[in-house]
Amino acid sequence: ERGHGPYQPHEPGYGLYQPGHSPYDDQIPDPKSRTLAIENAKAYLLKSSTTSGLNLYDHLANMLTKILDEQPTNAVDIIENISKDVKWAHFQKKMDTLRDEHEILTTFEAAEKRKALFLKENGEGDEELEEEIGETPLPNVMETAFYFEQAGIGLSKDESYHIFLALKKLISVQPIQTCRFWGKILGLEMNYIIAEVQYHEGEEEEETEEEAVTEEGAKWVGEVEDEEEEKEKEDESPKSTYKPPPVIPKEENGTGANKYVYFVCNEPGKPWVKLPPVTPAQIVCARKIKKFFTGRLDAPVVSFPPFPGNEANYLRAQIARISAGTQISPIGFYQFAEEEDEDEEVEGGRDTYEENPDFQPLSVAEMVDSLSAWVHNVQSILKQGRCVWLNPLQKTEEEEENEEEEKAEEPDELPQELQQEIGPPLLTPLSEDEGIQNIPAWTAQPSTNLIPQYAVAVLQSNRWPGAYAFASGKKFDNIYFGWGHKYSPENHAPTLPPPVQAEYPSGPEITETRDPTVEEELAFKAAREEALATAEEEEDEEGAEEDEEEDD
Fold it and tell me: Distance between CA atoms of 341 and 386, rounded to whole angstroms?
């Protein structure tokens, strides 16, 4: 065993037995040299760092002060951490009397926006539970998300649940009879979460009356302005005889392309905004353009041909087009009413149906193997922009009486007859859909091939990428996640502007005469002077003859 021999250089006690430091040394060191050594050591410790500007003396003093104040257990084991804390506190920004501005995380902002979704309103409790037990227009978004998740389609569970709560908030505010999560359209700045609803009977009629009143008021104001303009321009240039084509009116609320009402919001928790009804002109123009959504409903739509409206109208037109082409259901789930089969026949075909109580669902294999097992449950939109064709030349009785007077003045103008458009009837099988060149209109597949007895039939639209449908037993649903654009095998080519109008045909009646030469001008002046001179002579002679007659 090693004794208490001399310490090695790496040991803490090294130097105690050096001359002048040994406790057994009788020689006392010089106090001046000891003081000088202490001052040199302190000066070395007070030497500032060229990197941080600190010195070791103050740092050790602050560390010891912190250790003595806090007295942590096993201080020797955390001495490195204490050193880091002391340095960090030294470089921390001192705000004096000003308050620190804490950084707001994006997750905190999102939680604040969705905080209202988790709060119950006053009075909610047992009554709400009783209502939930009965029939409610609130759709089971989480159940639908579960089925779509089997095929790898849908949103995260958190976002689906937030949408679930947002739809519940919408139903508590609006008098809604049916509600469905339509889907999500992506935008460059923000996205659109879309809810498809139907009002209770009588609620929508009030809104239509208000719209009609505003339209009549606008027409009356327009007529007054036209009369004033006509009075001002009576003595001005002649008016143009061009008559623009008649405006095709929109379909009434609750019918055709305006059968459903749509509410949108950018994120769950933000207020829902109701989209305006769609017009045929907006649908026709939306087919000719291709624009990305920004996420702002009031954003202008800059395109050619010019779109009649802003982004809210363009979004509503695209929703109508997507719904008409991708809303499907298993065959036999819906049926036409028996009363309408014999008695009632609508011009554009039947537009209503009802659920079949005797529906027997097909197997997943049958739903996947044949597209005839699926049918369209939304009316198709004609080229006119309506689901039911309307003759724009057909006038009302008052308009016919007014036109009879105009025809008496202009009997040569005869209206051209228009050919009625007829689209595919409601509940048409998907097997009759036209493909896109060599691509079928739909792709059907099971959710899994490993466990076919628990698989779900999933359909994907190739014409509208992002549109999906599932069927499992008696349950089915449709959803859309995409940019709101229709697939085209070729690049989008904007509509070219119309050709430049031709110049007016030149003729002798409008041809400008050439300028006369100097000789012609002098000859003209001479002839004019001679004519004036002869005229004066004739007048003088006539005056002399009259004077002679008076004298006689």
Answer: 23
Q: How many domains does the chain have?
A: 1
Tokens coding 369 = 């193997």
Q: Which residue reads 């009649």 in tokens?
A: 308
Tell me the two tokens of residue 7. Answer: 């310490």
Q: Are strands 374-376 and 442-446 parallel, antiparallel or unpaired?
A: unpaired
Neighbours of 109 (CB within 10 A): 10
Q: What is the DSSP string of 144-182?
A: HHHHHHTTT-S--HHHHHHHHHHHHHHHHHS-EEEEEEE
Domain span at residue 265? 141-202+246-337+351-390+422-482
- Residues 323 and 484 sit within 8 Å (Cβ to Cβ): no
Sign of torsion, CA 60 64 70 73? Answer: positive
Confidence of residue 412 (pLDDT cuts 50, 70, 90): very low
| 106-151 residue pLDDT tens | 888 888 888 888 887 655 554 455 454 557 899 999 999 999 999 8
Query: Contacts by 202-207 with C-beta closer than 8 Å and gap 24+?
Result: 203/175, 204/253, 204/254, 204/261, 207/253
| pLDDT the model gives residue 224 | 42
| Six token digits for residue 188 | 């460059």
DSSP single-letter state for residue 387: S
Closest to 495 in 3D by CA, of 338, 284, 247, 319? 284
Across 282-308, average pLDDT:
95
> In angstroms, rounded to a whole number, what is the distance separating the alpha carbons of residues 178 and 458?
24
CA dist 464 and 147 (Å) reads 21
DSSP secondary structure letters along 66-114: HHHHH--TTGGGGHHHHHHHHHHHHHSPP-TTSPP-PPPPHHHHHHHHT
- b/e 188-206 (16+ beta carbons within 10 angstroms → b): eeebbbbbbbbbeeeebee
CA dist 247 and 280 (Å) reads 9
**Tens of pLDDT, residues 181-211:** 999 999 999 999 999 999 988 766 545 444 4
Residue 124 lies inside a defined structural domain of this protein: no
Q: Which residue has the tokens 């001359």?
A: 19
Please check whether residue 10 lies inside any domain of the structure. no
Amino acid 344 reads E
| Of residues 532, 468, 547, the one with CA closest to residue 147 | 468
Confidence category of residue 401, pLDDT binned at 50, 70, 90 = low
**Nearest partner of 336 among 346, 348, 350, judged by Cα:** 350
Measured CA to CA, the distance from residue 124 to residue 122 in angstroms comes to 6
209 strand-pairing partners: none
Geometric angle at alpha carbon 470, from 468 and 473, rounded to 5°? 170
CA 188-189-194 angle, to 5 degrees, is 85
**Cα(245)–Cα(393) distance, integer angstroms:** 9
Report the alpha-carbon angle 155-158-161, nearest 5. Answer: 90
Residue 551: phi, psi to the nearest 5? -65, -40
What is the 3-class SS of 487-510, one letter each residue?
A: CCCCCCCCCCCCCCCCCCCCCCCC
Q: Is residue 23 part of a domain?
A: no
- The answer to whether the peptide bond before residue 305 is cis (omega within 30 degrees of 0) is yes
Asked whether residue 125 is domain-assigned, the answer is no
pTM for this structure?
Answer: 0.69
